[in-house]
Design a protein that fits this description.
manganese ion binding, binds 2-acetamido-2-deoxy-beta-D-glucopyranose, single chain, mainly alpha, mitochondrion, metal-binding, about 55% helix, Mn/Fe_SOD, oxidoreductase, binds fe (ii) ion
Length: about 220
């Protein structure tokens, strides 16, 4: 089938987020982009990048800050039902913050082409060729229903790469050890202003700006 949803993983990666969020003691801040808003043109225009980073990502961070504050108050008061009620907002905003922080570093004005070394070997082993991996990931990202993400991840148990789709409303349950290496944001805010509703054209263009060095670095870290 065209769809490679893995709800357990999408959810597990979110529960990991919650742990990271819960472990943090400071406020979260919006990370700077490692390039200018216009640097990814013509593939993603400056207007999209500016809105996506300074409005959408910033809103996740602000709401995460606010929700964490309320959560700490609920903890201090021993108010369990308030803690439970705050979980969805923690997950949503924590997930949004982590996902976008990965996404920005997965892209580069000097990106594109093909990966090298160990990452390329792993792609060939697990998908047959770079082109087959690209086709599978494109098809998966295009087919996400509504808002969501296409991910290339490293599965710790098997030592293999896998491609999955995550829809926005994935439930929180299950545990699998897939570590995100490359994420493609397919929410409309990521492409609509330039590509309108033609998501496949956005996906086709994004391959020109993938920062394979960053993806390789994430694979090295994941294998440790
Ligand atoms: C998160 O909250 C802190 C404290 O309210 C604030 O200083 C920081 O700017 C917030 N992050 C963003 C991206 O607004
Ligand atoms: C973040 O990514 C996870 C998968 O890792 C996905 O399930 C979730 O919907 C995403 N959240 C946002 C707000 O983009
Ligand atoms: C990849 O992303 C990580 C985490 O954000 C960052 O620390 C690192 O510098 C990036 N590496 C490259 C080569 O872009
Ligand atoms: Fe986004």
């Amino acid at each position: 089938s065209l769809l490679y949803y893995n709800h357990a993983w999408c959810a597990a990666s979110l529960s990991q987020t919650i742990n990271q969020v819960a472990a943090s003691r400071q406020k979260h801040t919006l990370p700077d982009l490692p390039y200018d808003y216009g640097a990814l043109e013509p593939h993603i225009n400056a207007e999209i990048m500016q809105l996506h980073h300074s409005k959408h990502h910033a809103t996740y961070v602000n709401n995460l800050n606010v929700t964490e504050e309320k959560y700490k108050e609920a903890l201090a008061k021993g108010d369990v039902s308030a803690q439970v009620a705050l979980q969805p907002a923690l997950k949503f905003n924590g997930g949004g913050h982590i996902n976008h922080s990965i996404f920005w570093t997965n892209l580069s004005p000097n990106g594109g082409g093909e990966p090298q070394g160990e990452l390329m070997e792993a792609i060939k082993r697990d998908f047959g060729s770079f082109q087959k991996m690209q086709e599978k990931m494109s098809a998966t990202a295009v087919a996400v229903q509504g808002s969501g993400w296409g991910w290339l991840g490293y599965e710790k148990e098997s030592g293999r790469l896998r491609i999955v789709a995550c829809a926005n409303q994935d439930p929180l349950q299950g545990t699998t050890g897939l570590i995100p290496l490359l994420g493609i944001d397919v929410w409309e805010h990521a492409y609509y202003l330039q590509y309108k509703n033609v998501r496949p054209d956005y996906i086709k263009a994004i391959w020109n700006i993938i920062n394979w060095e960053n993806v390789s670095e994430r694979l090295q870290t994941a294998k440790k």
